Amino acid sequence: MIDRRIKFRHIQCFVEICRQKSLKKAAEKQFLTQPAISKTLKELEEILNTQLLIRSRAGVTPTTEGEVFLHFAEMSVASLQQGLYGVEQVSSGGKTRLAVGALPSVAASLMPATVEKLDAITQDVRLTISDGPHGYLINQLRQGELDLVIGRLGAPDTMQGISFTQLYNEHVVFVARPQHPMTVDPDLTQLTNWPVLFPSAASAIRPLVERFLIANGVGDIPNRIETVSGAFGRAYVAKTDAIWIISAGVVANEIEDGRLVQLPFEMDGTKGPVGLMVRQDNEPSPAERMFRLAITQAIKDLKMA
Length: 305
Fold this sequence. Notes:
By secondary structure, this protein is an alpha/beta fold. It has 3 domains: 8-75, Winged helix-like DNA-binding domain superfamily/Winged helix DNA-binding domain (Arc Repressor Mutant, subunit A, Orthogonal Bundle), CATH 1.10.10.10; 95-167 and 273-302, 3-Layer(aba) Sandwich (D-Maltodextrin-Binding Protein, domain 2), CATH 3.40.190; 172-270, Periplasmic binding protein-like II (D-Maltodextrin-Binding Protein, domain 2). Helix content is 45%, strand content 20%. A 5-stranded mixed sheet has the order 4-3-5-12-6, with helices on both faces. Strands 9-8-10-7-11 form a 5-stranded mixed sheet, with helices on one face. A two-stranded antiparallel ribbon has the order 1-2. Helix 1 (8-20) crosses helix 3. One of its GO terms (cellular component) is cytosol.
């Protein structure tokens, strides 16, 4: 039997501390003071009569007991969120809500065709689409804010509790405006001569890009802006001499239309799987099954597989 002293705030705070690996950051996310969230954690550990977290200068890490509790605590938070969405669904006239997270490359290249396919299959799904970096979307998925995420396979430590189904492979590209000096003399070692839009730390392609540059003798890039914003990248690169390092899908339309030019570097080393990610405890809903069918058809039509 569940101890009645355990409240939802205990579970929510514990999960947030584990996600942020910091009591201070978790307190900020929960709009609490650090002493308040520390007290909540202490209450939970006293109720369970065990230590759940180890604090050190490096941050906060779960004990073995904490790892076990975290697994089920995350499932509980996600299930409650789904229950709230279920109530919202009934209030909205019966349409099934499906919340999808898409990395910028997927949002730009694959999602428009997928939405068209889904609309042809059914009119009973109310789709919401969010984009952003890998880390942000995976956290939203774990919290139950998203039902599934389409994007690159992340590092092993970011994929715990997440199931990944590969859809296709995608590579990284270097792009610039037409008539950029690098289009005439494409020398990768000269990259540091120009402003560079660089993948942010939370992006799945960041490690691939860093390894690629090291392998090609490119050192630190001092004049760089870290971003995965497609809107900013398109506007900034079109008006400046900046070079944009980004997943190919984000700029596929611009390259095809001639608004941006892909620099002729060999990028096979940056190729990686893009797939569908869900929580491991996920039981696919009819809406999710229809979405999977739609995305499979879109990939086939776009010849991405």
